[in-house]
From TrEMBL:
It holds the Pfam family Flavoprotein. Gene3D superfamilies: Flavin prenyltransferase-like (3.40.50.1950). GO terms for molecular function: catalytic activity. SUPFAM superfamilies: Homo-oligomeric flavin-containing Cys decarboxylases, HFCD. Residues 28-125 form the Flavoprotein domain. InterPro entries: Flavin_trans-like, Flavoprotein. This is Phosphopantothenoylcysteine synthetase/decarboxylase. Signal peptide: none annotated.
Length: 246
């Protein structure tokens, strides 16, 4: 048996085991509430749909969210025992571990402005900034940062610009009731991929998919290439096309 055949057999076995382990694990979503009440109830309903579809949550509240939101209600609705706030930064590494999605359930104009300009001086804005740089799919409810609430056209333009920047960062802005609409299939806001890149690899992973996303390209693979289930899931959710060539 040649070396290439041996490598292919080993890779298939590893992928099979990893896939089986993944089926036994629930997906992880980092849920962030900033200090807005608009859309709050709809966001909880969407999150409950995610929970029913196999998600566990790590929940983070900003300081202002702690003052206006019912933490006991959130724990009950989302079936979580702990809620993390700005006062316990020691948990940052835990909050970032094994995250598949970031959901900004309530997004204020203040937090939107900070993220748009790269300010990460709170636990929520730090985690959102980390998610952007790590290529984690992020969806945010837009009710709490609606520019139409401003009577000043100049101020409204500034708010619109902030939201446009968030979209450029890859954040999908939606109504709170649509946070989990179509299981993130609309995450890319209808971005079309016109370029293609051929990957001469035996194994396509999540990192390859994120690279394609950042490069605005489709992935072309040979019929002998193995695409991990996680790579397929991420590709489907963030809108990366994987095509098999002859």
């Amino acid at each position: 048996m040649g070396l290439d055949n041996m490598i292919e057999i080993i890779v298939k076995e590893v992928v099979k085991r990893v896939t089986n382990e993944m089926k036994l694990q629930r997906k992880q979503a980092l849920v962030i509430f900033t200090g807005a009440m608009a859309g709050y109830k709809d966001a909880l309903h969407s999150l409950k749909e995610m929970s029913a579809d196999g998600y566990n949550f790590k929940v983070v509240l900003s300081k202002s969210a702690q003052k206006i939101l019912d933490q006991d209600k959130i724990k009950e609705e989302l079936k979580v025992s702990d809620i993390y706030v700005d006062e316990n930064p020691k948990d940052i590494d835990y909050l970032k571990k094994d995250i598949d999605k970031i959901v900004i359930s309530t997004l204020t104009r203040n937090s939107a402005a900070k993220v748009a300009t790269g300010i990460a001086d709170t636990l929520p804005t730090y985690l959102i900034s980390w998610g952007i740089m790590a290529g984690i799919p992020i969806v945010a409810s837009e009710e709490g940062c609606n520019p139409k609430n401003s009577n000043s056209s100049h101020y409204q333009n500034m708010l619109v610009n902030n939201l446009n920047i968030l979209k450029e960062y890859g954040i999908s802005l939606r109504k709170a009731k649509d946070i989990y609409k179509d299981k993130f299939k609309e995450f890319t806001n209808s971005i079309e991929y016109e370029k293609e890149m051929f990957m001469e690899k035996k194994l396509i992973t999540r990192e390859d998919v994120i690279e394609a996303k950042n490069s605005n390209k489709k992935i072309l693979v040979s019929k002998n290439t193995i695409v991990t289930q996680l790579a397929k899931d991420i590709a489907r959710e963030i809108g990366v096309t994987i095509k098999t060539t002859n």
